[in-house]
Amino acid sequence: MLQWTYYKLTELEKQITSLYQSIEIWHPEDIQENLIAARIGIKLRYEDAPSLAFEKGKYRCIVIDNTLALEEQRKQFFHEFGHLLRGHAGNQSVLPELFRDLQEEQAEHFATYAMMPAYLIMNLPVPEYERDFPYLLSSSFRVPVDTAKERWDQIKRRISAGAWEQECIERERYRYKKADPANWCDETKKIFRLAIDRKMQKGQGVIIR
Q: What is the pTM of this model?
């Protein structure tokens, strides 16, 4: 069973969740390119041309290469959508290579989260076998299986990291709790008082910090 309580949303995921809920995206089937573009006010065009996004004043547009397979067109939309919302729209060819690579990486991260947002994944029925989860993601969100597998692996890593972090916190709490005299048993308190008395008898004194 997935321990979603250990999964912490990134700031980007929080932004996507807020955006989607503001335009009433409540189910995987609501994640449609035309619907999202229309509700946000983005012109969406399919042409025999390379995919791109651009913005001029209040006009925002995404062009998708219609010669690509449908699944690839979907990925391209969310990639370009990420460029647009993160302020990357424009002529990337004039940018330094490292900066351009950073923008591409950011757009890829955005596309992954936007195609399969965590708040919707959490509501999916959990399959009997873990190996079937990527196929559930693929069919529910209409993405390639390899993309769904990447997202699933990411989810598992984040849950494991969250569980490990919580375990460390609990260990530290337990350690400090044991060190607090208020939590000592009567026998421990008796031994501690005896040790203090002996030090006082020897004239050493005791400093308790």
A: 0.74
